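yo

u said u wanted the structure for the complex thing, so here. seqs first:
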Amino acid sequence: MTNSEPETFFPQELIRNFSIIAHIDHGKSTLADRILSLTGALSDRQMRDQYLDSMDIERERGITIKSQAVTVNWEKGGKTYALSMIDTPGHVDFNYEVSRALAACEGCVLLVDATQGIEAQTLSNLYLALQNDLAIIPVLNKIDLPGAKTEEVRATLCDLLGVSPEEVMEVSAKTGVGVKELLDAIVEKVPAPSGDPDAPTRALIFDSQYDAYRGIITYIRLVDGRIEAKDRIIQMKSGSSLVPLELGIVDPFMRPVEMLTTGQVGYVITGIKDVRQAQVGDTITCERSLASEPLKGYKAPESMVYAGIFPLETDQFPLLRQSLDKLRLNDASISYTPETSSALGFGFRCGFLGLLHMQIVIERLEREFGLELISTAPNVHYRVEMADGSEVTVTNPTQFPENKVKAVYEPVIEASIITPKEYVGDVMKLCQEHRGKMLGMEYLGPDGVCLRYKMPTGEIIFGFFDQLKSRTKGYATLDYAPAGEEKADLVRVDILIHGELSDALSAICHKDKAYEYGLKMTKKLKKLIPRQQFEIPIQAAIGQRVIARETISPLRKDVLAKCYGGDITRKRKLLEKQREGKKKMKMIGNVAIPQEAFISALSLEDLDDKDIREKLKAHAKK
Amino acid sequence: MSFSNTRPPAGPKELGEAYLPTDRPFRVYVHVPFCLRRCGYCNFNTFTSFSLAPGFDRESYPALLEREMRAARRWQEEHGVPVKAASSVFFGGGTPTALRPSQLSSILQAVRRTWGIDEGAEVSLEANPDTVDPKKLFSLRRAGFTRVSFGVQSWEPRILKILDRTHSPQAAWRAVRGARKAGLECSADLIYGTPSEKRGEWERSVRKTASLGLDHVSCYALSIYPRTKMGRMLERGKIKEESDSAQAMDYEIADSILSRRGYKWYEVSNWAREGKECLHNLGYWRGDDWIGLGPGAHSHFSNLRFWDFSRPGRWSERVLSDDLPWEGEVLGEKEEAEEEIFLGVRLREGLNLKNLEERLGRRVIGELPPFEGLAHIRGGSLVPTRQGRLLNDFLARSLMDRFLD
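structre next:
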């Protein structure tokens, strides 16, 4: 067939690889959909809203987590170009994936909602693009909406990028206005890939996914040379060598091809089921044209948040391990090591990029693998210098040494917060409450202010974003990046139930917040733990020192008074049910605690009542 | 899950075929599902209207019961369930005295005709203090009743009003005096844990009861059920449930006063003078056989537990076509062991550990979990302490956890 030619031998100068950088809700997925329909890649009948966000969770949350690569054809000046659109996630937790996507592109579309203006997150992704030397096409979206501040936002973009106002394009992804012009601009402004078609084969793995039927699907960008369907390919880092089952491009359906050539973006299916065999960032070469040096790859992502994840049913532990292995394949940023908890059994201590990332991973594990999970409260990692000169890295509060500690260091971040001028005071107060140190403040246009703070990572990842939003009526945006570590006054608060340490509930806190944690946790537990036949003290302690205490009074009466008309069956069933219920409970010493109590205690939901406020006030005075 | 409640109920034929013979005493329970009005806390299977279903009203009820008795006896004969004379008969409700003495008498006659009643057997009925008078009590004694149990509940007018009881303390007092004059053994039921009841009020009620020279006293904790008048009041916040520790204290008060006045507990909720224990009641906890008659009544024969349909229409339809209005369950070894444990630990005679060892085929004595003041061993039986009575379900569950898993 003649029309399969362009797919197989696609001339390098007709290839354009780009991604779209945008904040959540700024219309990236709508624009991607529009491009798919305009180029005829998807017929109207095939068109689904936001095709690229294929995962359920992404659809429900309206965000893109996984980048995907779709190639479409676009005619300009009598030539047919192959435009590969590499999707990027839009949340701060997923910066790592953004950089992966950008490394496979030569250009990017900077999409800004004309009703909202530029946001902190977009700014940081833009810097990433600039660092990668990508061609940048600034685009204003939602220009047709009544609230559009087109000129104002245009001015800010010109300022930021040093471009002239004419260079800022305008589209309405919803109606399609301006999208044709944008596609033309991509052809004009984004350079063709620069690799050498005659050099030894080198392809970058920028993504991979596990498919239950087809095994691992690896997404690659050909940098040099070519891969043919019959080639034996070699992954340079892992050393695995095999002939692929299928080579193809996504258009947006998976379409097999005979060959992928320099500059092209496509996929490889190897039939491998072992997830460790397909590492993102690895370089693929082939036996026919063996490369000696791998590509630069990616910087390994840094985990920012750690939490223990445990199956509710202990026999699901092996399934949890397999599921994590599979998930890691297309989310290389998850790390995990086995962990045992006296209260929760066998599980894993997992590292995540951020809190949203953690929630999404847990949700995916539950949905895609049918697991029921409980997670401990998340924490950051600490470096502890011991008196004897040794060092301990703590990712789990139970590892935090109690004695002979010389100094504790906690990770810090540099945060950029963009807010309208009138909320600057509120934002500064919030940052101070979270132990922030101000680094600087810049004006962005007439109304916007960018505040820069250095803050402990542990202060910003839990709830800070929500507080920021609520104090600025939703206007402020936040971005942050790791900025090393700082010495801090930290302690471990333990929770003892009936004198027994409940390891899953221990937390590392700043000295000034320890009392608050202890007070709230003991109160929460008092509400959650059912009364038993004996008195149960619940204590929060730092080392041997008890800082807060609640008591659950003993159950004095546990007997059914009467069996009506000799209804023994009902009584027996009641006792059976109670016994079944107890078997499902977790035992801390001899106290039976329902699983739901742990789930609620470990939820990040804050407890607030009059008594707590008064006690905290009195404590602050001391 | 291994719950037996996931099994569909068994019908009379299936039950009869699964029967394994024992030599326990045989007892008869007669349910009278009529009341003049429903009390605020009541969730029993009882009705205030005269007629409950076609062919089923207060007038025709004794005849319906006799038809059920005959059908039951046929079932026994068909399935080799030994037919024995009743060691005790108990009329409960509802309000048995909502029926006339002549009706109650004819039901008792029917029991006699169907199974026979042992010489000197205990024949009890429950009564509302304001549904009896001396004459009625005399005729009941003459009809063969030996024992009456009055729903006194409290001697405090304020508490009776909250409980939505119609009788006055005076009426209760007259009823007790009338019963004793008629030569009936006499028991009173009391309720503790009524919302807002003060400790003093409860104490006065117990003292008053103990001073009347009754043979037997039962004290029950008030349970408020959702679809009752009091349940709705609780929902709307009009009344507040008493805490378990307040109820425990009430129980301890009753136990102290009654034991000082010569009553000994023999079951968690029951106290009696020496030799005046209610044998029918004890039979429930000892695992005796009994037939229950009337809508919602429960029966037990060896490894079978079954019950009459509760809905009057469903019940009478079967009875009127000479079918058995029953469904129930066949107990497996595990269920029988569970029952032996939780029934046994409710009694002062205790849970016979030797029998339990035999049933389980394993050592029990010496392997008991630590009870810390909830029970002790006396004469080879495990007997609950006062605290063990208050935490009796916990005690039973601990034993089951220890020996049945």
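The interface with chain B takes residues 531, 533, 553, 555-569, 571-573, 575-580, 582 of chain A (CB under 8 Å). Residues 1-7, 57-67 of chain A have pLDDT under 50 and may be disordered.
cya
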